[in-house]
Specification:
The chain is of the alpha/beta class and 477 residues long. It has two domains: 230 residues, Ribokinase (UDP-N-acetylmuramoyl-L-alanine:D-glutamate ligase), CATH 3.40.1190.20; 217 residues, Up-down Bundle (Heme Oxygenase, Chain A). Helix content is 55%, strand content 13%. Strands 3-2-1-4-5-6-7-8-9 form a nine-stranded mixed β-sheet, with helices on both faces. Helix 1 links the parallel strand 1 and strand 2. Helix 1 crosses helix 6, helix 11 packs antiparallel against helix 18 and helix 14 packs across helix 15. The chain is elongated and about 100 Å long. The two termini are 53 Å apart. One of its GO terms (cellular component) is cytosol. GO terms for molecular function: hydroxymethylpyrimidine kinase activity; phosphomethylpyrimidine kinase activity; thiaminase activity. It holds the Pfam family TENA_THI-4. InterPro entries: Haem_Oase-like_multi-hlx, PM/HMP-P_kinase-1, Ribokinase-like, Thiaminase-2/PQQC, Thiaminase_II.
Length: 477
């Protein structure tokens, strides 16, 4: 199971979608991090656009922070001091960070009152103007070098491991600059948000993305650069609201439910129903299927199994993990044993191995098996398994439906044994394992790849249906 990093967000809650804890939680979710929150204040707008603020009592806030750190296995503490961070909470956080140096921390700094935190921070993030204010300087002070990199170096002397000087994120035609300074040197990054209008929320999204990236163990310069590229994509073609989830894959099924999703799709249902509810099967279940049709099917099924073994040998070649290579080899050996049983079953219908081998492979058999092999040769392991799955899963579904159907004739039905074979424990276990493998590997695919795999499944299902049509066509039914 994948472990997600935990980030404790300390800051104000806002009624605006683009700021405050609410917006930061979206950023963390987009980075697959879990958010824990401690609200310093609640902000809401009045009709005249003025703000009403209710600050959290410091004792209560401190208690909330302490419990969160104790219970949530926090990797990063991200602090916004813009509203409601009182002196007692600053001192409380400073003590926590001092006594827990393994906890990474980031302060989005707006206030001088947060200075007691500086010596214990992993990252101090602020604007150039606020940095000068923290240093007791301003851009008009005589003799002051206001170069952004020099400001970052001066600010680092206050104690944090890294300083990030962020831009104001205002609409401009010029690229903006982000400066990162730490013991490993100075890094200057250029960002491009050149537009006549920028969506609100870039500032908080940028800082939250940095916290997510360091929580995921990215080195500091890479964490900042990745955050910068993230917000560029957030703002691209979004003049009103940020697209926080631009790089998040949204699979249309939950983990472990790919096959259920696949079989329930409207575009699959039509092909699947034709395959699993074919007239060949209806007459097989009630015992009225012409014997010659079934015998021809048995012959072609044996010839199919030969190609089925080749396909699983190809699956072994497609694998790199030895255990999976061995599993594919074991399937080939299982097919070999199944073919021996198949020959024994064929004898009940007066068919010998010689009869089978001298029969030409039908066009339906050739079309399906070569499609499977071609898919395996030109695509990946999963595509090959998808191409094979209408056979594996379909026979299990068909046999279970016919076995449970009270209309199915058992006594005196020459085909009852065929139905019973495919509800036996060994086959149902094989189906279950096959479905589990498909579910596991499908979860790692992109949405576009899922659509490609669905098309392979539909085509292979139609090929399977051709097997039933084949038996009828041979005798002119």
């Amino acid at each position: 199971m994948e472990n997600h990093a935990n980030v404790l967000l300390i800051g104000p809650s806002s009624d605006q979608a683009t700021s405050g804890l609410e917006a930061e939680q979206r950023v963390l979710a987009a980075h697959q991090c879990h958010a824990v929150t401690a609200t310093t204040a609640m902000l809401t707008r009045n009709d005249d656009d003025s703000l009403d603020t209710i600050e959290t009592p410091p004792a209560f806030l401190n208690k909330r922070i302490g419990i969160s750190l104790k219970d949530a296995a926090v990797d990063v503490v991200k602090i916004d001091d813009s509203v409601g961070l009182k002196e007692s909470t600053v001192e409380y956080l400073a003590a926590i960070l001092k006594n827990n140096p393994k906890i990474l921390s980031l302060l989005d700094c707006n206030e001088k009152s947060s200075a007691p935190l500086f010596a214990h921070l992993t990252v101090l993030c602020t604007t150039k103007a606020d940095a000068l204010d923290l240093l007791g300087l301003n851009s008009t002070t005589e003799g002051v070098n206001v170069d952004q990199s020099e400001v970052a170096k001066s600010l680092k002397s206050l104690g944090s491991k890294y300083v990030v000087i962020k831009p104001l994120f205002q609409a401009t035609e010029e690229p903006f600059t982000v400066t990162v300074y730490g013991d490993d040197g100075l890094l200057t990054l250029k960002g491009d948000l050149s537009t006549s209008r920028l969506p609100a929320g870039l500032d908080s999204a940028f800082v939250a993305a940095i916290s997510a990236n360091i929580a995921k163990n990215l080195a500091m310069p890479k964490a900042v650069e990745a955050a910068l590229r993230y917000i560029e994509a957030c703002a691209r073609d979004q003049p009103v609201q940020l697209n926080y989830f631009h790089s998040v894959y949204k699979l249309p099924f939950t983990p472990g439910n790919f096959v259920d999703y696949l079989l329930a799709r409207d575009d699959v249902q039509e092909a699947w129903k034709r395959h699993t509810e074919h007239e060949f099967l209806t007459r097989l279940a009630n015992g009225t299927l012409p014997l010659e049709a079934f015998k021809y099917y048995l012959i072609q099924d044996y010839l199919f199994l030969v190609q089925f073994a080749r396909a699983n040998s190809l699956a072994a070649y497609k694998e790199k993990d030895l255990d999976k290579i061995v599993r594919s080899a074991e399937i080939v050996l299982h097919i070999n044993r199944e073919m021996a049983l198949h020959l024994s079953y064929c004898k009940d219908f007066g068919l010998t191995k010689e009869d089978i081998l001298k029969t030409e492979e039908s066009q339906a058999c050739t079309a399906y098996t070569r499609y499977v092999l071609d898919t395996g040769a030109s695509e990946d392991w999963l595509a090959l398994q998808i191409a094979l799955s209408p056979c594996l899963i379909g026979y299990g579904v068909i046999a279970r439906r016919l076995y449970d159907d009270p209309k199915t004739v058992r006594e005196g039905n020459p085909y009852w044994k065929w139905i019973a074979n495919y509800v036996a424990d060994d086959y149902t276990e094989a189906v279950t394992l096959g479905i589990e493998l498909l579910d596991k590997h499908a979860q790692k695919q992109s949405p576009s790849r899922i659509e490609e795999l669905v098309k392979i499944f539909i085509h292979a299902t139609n090929m399977e249906t051709g097997f039933w049509n084949m038996g009828y066509a041979k005798i002119g039914v």
